Amino acid sequence: MSINLEKYNEWASNRKAYSEGLTAVQLFPKLKMGDRGALASAITLIESSNPSHRTEANALINLCLPYSGNSWRIGITGVPGVGKSTFIEAIGQVLVNQGNRIAVMAIDPSSSISGGSILGDKTRMESLSMREEVFIRPTATGKTLGGVAQHTRETIILCEAAGYNIIFIETVGVGQSETVVHSMVDFFLLLMLSGAGDELQGIKRGIMEMADGILITKADQGNEQAAIHAKRTYQNALHLFTAKDSGWIPKIECISSIEKIALNHPLNWWKSFFNECTSSGYLNHKRKAQDIQFFEESFQQQLSLFMANNEQINNGYKDLQSQVFNGNCSPYEAADKLLKLFTSAHENL
Questions:
Q1: I want to staple 214 with a disulfide (CB 3.0 to 4.6 A). Which of 40, 157, 252, 269 is the partner?
Q2: Considering the entire predicted model, what is its pTM?
């Protein structure tokens, strides 16, 4: 008797998922109690590339949704070497000592060869990662624009349901479309170095316009005056930008994460920002708008997957791509033909 290898692999994968407890019904009660192991397994489930796991992942997200939305979602970005992990390590200790529970989504660059993560933020947040109140999840960027892992939005929901009231999303910080991070957080914090030179101005302006707060890092060991000069320069630049819809005026200060200097500034910013934006209703409005954007992005992903997994459409797509490349068909005509092929294939399902 012959064995259908594809069906067997699907069965084996589902069996493994159930045996490992990667199901919504099994994970949710433990996750809701703050079990870090369950949270890690839940994130593994939603990050799985196996299509058969998507049903369980969606069920788990739906269970967690009523318990989400109660955290501060803070994005942290800056060029490599600016001290993002060092800052989170320092500020995280303060927040935990104040009674908060913190989740850190550390978005690592991916190897273009293996696809794996090539940094390790847990090793750079050694003290913080040892705290029971802290959950740190290094995640490879994969192919997602802006260095943000594909399922970071869903991970935020899981962490909130697990009782983490402050969520940090640390980005790659290489200047590639950090708007993706901005679209999933409440407060966008930019870390900058003094004396970085004009070579970074091209990426600074775009990110600075999105920033709700700017910290000049490493204001210590004789670098204090340079940091103060940079602060004045950026303060002048901020006056040129359009006012934010939230009414919040971006702040800028100098800090030293290593010497624990001026860490009270970002703490005070966050308290003021969330108090003001919650009472005005802006925060609720912003998150609903983010949900709509996430819905549209998710639909586009699902549409792409459907087309990729449909042999007729996939073959037609490759043929039309070849025609456009060879100049036998215009891009617009090819797009129209692909849409008709898609609708035809959908009607035949």
A1: 252
A2: 0.83
